[in-house]
């Protein structure tokens, strides 16, 4: 008995950050140490604890749910959380990690609304988001840190996932838990010790640490937008309740604006003859009818997909985006090309579509789409004047680019980032009278989210005059300046109006004037409120012209 008590005292007197030397010693620590609880004082203003401080509930909103454990956590000690309540409608899920800062020394004013990014941008805090696909009611999350400063987590005692690296383990560590987003209530369970990771198991777990984290700012923005909409709806309900004869309907308060009925932005009748072309990136799989393209989440680099026929002038293409709940970030890319996909081979398709610009065909790539949500419906239409317009959920977003409509154009996408799925809904052909050459109604021709978020190459078959307009300047205005064709006997195109030395080889967007060399054009573009030396219009970009 004396030896046992001596062993127990020596173990319990160890610092929390020390490493138990054996599985027996680890069990001894757990037998003596009190199970962790939530800190009763250091918590967000929306957190409510039960009488035993084992259960934390977020009462209002989607944020202000930051909590900490009441004591430091041993190395290899699993912090086990049961997801008691999950309320869908918000974006994002539980955030968790560790901190070297003692919660007892924190004041309520020091605890911010969000763990990510508010806390993790401060020294001594490490946390990330639980992927939403794991945020399921009654799931048990366990996370721990090893002596190398690596954080692992597991769901329902399945294989561990390497979550974070570089944790400072030279001092005590408290667990940090943010009851965020769809996670509404969590309960701390009794601790367990994790086994030391073998090399084989570590190589399997290492994959998940390389997965990019979800965009915390995007989730916070979406949730704040939703909360504002709910307040407006509640006020509207309150006003309606004061009108005699009108009852309130709580169901009209939006659950989530991003989960609204997107079908309202889609025509009632769509042609379904356009599908994805069989030629595709090796990391993409198609549905049997080639209407849906999905990425392989473990390896989703080369994800180019094409339409199986050219898009007609005045024809609108409708696609629906979706994601599989993976913790990725990034965006969808869209483009048009004169290249028939049947002439391509899978091993020729790169991960970055910009590499296609070196090919001899005509390629234009646009990659600056705004943050998209699962279920959003995008539309694309090529107008007779070469403008490509797009819309989101039935709302016009203006012009993306200007393209050469003198040749057949296939559309293509790269599916990456948070977008892991793309579904072709169909197409609709506009009658000639309904296609406006000046752009789609409800938006100006330059109201897209990013005017110059594209890349373009030049078709080898394009004429010299076309290089000065649409193909070389994808966002040229509908009425472009008319340039005289170069004289065959001379290779010069005039002197730069700035340096009066180099040859003019750059066109100014949006006015279209060619009066600069590329060196002076780039310098002028960097200046504040840069203007065209000829017409004084604002310079949005400069585009170098390559002549045969």
UniProtKB/TrEMBL annotation:
Span list, region Disordered: 1-22, 465-493
EC number(s) given by UniProt: 2.3.2.27
SUPFAM superfamilies xref list: RING/U-box
Catalysis performed (reactions): S-ubiquitinyl-[E2 ubiquitin-conjugating enzyme]-L-cysteine + [acceptor protein]-L-lysine = [E2 ubiquitin-conjugating enzyme]-L-cysteine + N(6)-ubiquitinyl-[acceptor protein]-L-lysine
Entry's localization field: Cytoplasm
Matches recorded under InterPro entries: B30.2/SPRY_sf (IPR043136), Neuralized (IPR037962), NHR_dom (IPR006573), Znf_RING (IPR001841), Znf_RING/FYVE/PHD (IPR013083)
A GO MF term: zinc ion binding
Residue ranges of domain RING-type in the record: 496-536
Keywords: Cytoplasm, Ligase, Metal-binding, Notch signaling pathway, Phosphoprotein, Repeat, Transferase, Ubl conjugation pathway, Zinc, Zinc-finger
Record's keyword annotation contains Phosphoprotein: yes
GO biological process: Notch signaling pathway; ubiquitin-dependent endocytosis
Main location: cytoplasm
NHR domain segment(s): 35-191, 273-427
Listed Pro residues bias regions: 474-488
Pathway of action: Protein modification; protein ubiquitination
Pfam family, one: zf-C3HC4_3
Function: E3 ubiquitin-protein ligase involved in regulation of the Notch pathway through influencing the stability and activity of several Notch ligands.
Name used for this protein in its record: E3 ubiquitin-protein ligase NEURL1B
Organism of this sequence: Leiothrix lutea (Red-billed leiothrix)
Gene from which this protein is expressed: Neurl1b
């Amino acid at each position: 008995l004396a030896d046992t008590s001596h062993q127990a005292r020596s173990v319990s007197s160890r610092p929390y950050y020390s490493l138990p030397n054996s599985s027996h010693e680890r069990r001894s620590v757990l037998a003596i140490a009190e199970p962790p609880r939530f800190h009763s004082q250091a918590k967000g203003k929306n957190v409510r604890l039960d009488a035993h401080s084992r259960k934390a509930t977020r009462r209002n909103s989607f944020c202000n749910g930051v909590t900490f454990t009441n004591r430091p956590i041993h190395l290899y000690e699993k912090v086990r959380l049961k997801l008691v309540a999950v309320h869908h409608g918000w974006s994002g899920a539980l955030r968790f990690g560790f901190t070297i800062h003692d919660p007892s020394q924190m004041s309520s004013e020091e605890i911010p609304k969000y763990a990510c990014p508010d806390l993790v941008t401060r020294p001594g805090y490490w946390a990330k988001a639980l992927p939403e696909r794991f945020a399921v009611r009654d799931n048990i999350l366990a996370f721990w840190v090893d002596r190398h400063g690596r954080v692992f987590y597991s769901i329902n005692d399945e294989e561990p996932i390497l979550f974070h690296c570089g944790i400072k383990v030279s001092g005590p560590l408290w667990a940090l838990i943010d009851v965020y987003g769809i996670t509404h209530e969590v309960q701390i369970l009794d601790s367990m010790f994790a086994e030391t990771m073998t090399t084989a198991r570590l190589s399997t777990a290492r994959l998940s640490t390389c997965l990019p984290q979800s965009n915390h700012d995007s989730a916070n923005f979406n949730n704040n937008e939703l909360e504002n909409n709910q307040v407006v709806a509640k006020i509207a309900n309150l006003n309606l309740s004061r009108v005699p004869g009108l009852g309130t309907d709580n169901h009209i308060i939006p659950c989530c604006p991003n989960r609204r009925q997107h079908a309202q932005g889609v025509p009632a009748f769509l042609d379904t003859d356009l599908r994805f072309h069989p030629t595709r990136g090796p990391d993409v799989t198609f549905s049997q009818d080639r209407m849906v393209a999905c990425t392989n989440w473990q390896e989703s680099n080369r994800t180019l997909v094409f339409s199986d026929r050219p898009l007609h002038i005045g024809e609108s293409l409708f696609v629906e985006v979706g994601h599989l709940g993976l913790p990725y970030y990034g965006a969808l890319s869209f483009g048009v090309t004169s290249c028939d996909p049947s002439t391509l081979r899978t091993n020729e398709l790169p991960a970055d579509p910009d590499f296609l610009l070196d090919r001899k065909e005509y390629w234009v790539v646009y990659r600056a789409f705004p943050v998209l949500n699962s279920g959003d419906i995008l539309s694309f239409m090529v107008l007779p004047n070469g403008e490509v317009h797009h819309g989101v959920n039935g709302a016009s977003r203006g012009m993306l680019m200007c393209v050469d409509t003198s040749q057949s154009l296939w559309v293509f996408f790269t599916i990456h980032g948070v977008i892991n799925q793309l579904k072709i809904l169909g197409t609709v052909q506009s009658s000639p009278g309904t296609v406006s050459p000046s752009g789609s109604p409800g938006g100006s021709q330059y109201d897209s989210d990013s005017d110059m978020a594209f890349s373009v190459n030049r078709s080898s078959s394009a004429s010299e005059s076309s290089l000065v307009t649409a193909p070389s300047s994808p966002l040229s205005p509908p009425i472009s300046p008319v340039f005289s064709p170069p004289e065959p006997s001379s290779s010069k195109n005039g002197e730069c109006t700035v340096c009066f030395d180099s040859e003019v080889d750059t066109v100014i967007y949006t006015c279209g004037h060619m009066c600069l060399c590329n060196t002076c054009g780039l310098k002028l573009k960097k200046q504040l409120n840069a203007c065209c030396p000829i017409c004084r219009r604002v310079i949005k970009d400069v585009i170098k012209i390559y002549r045969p």
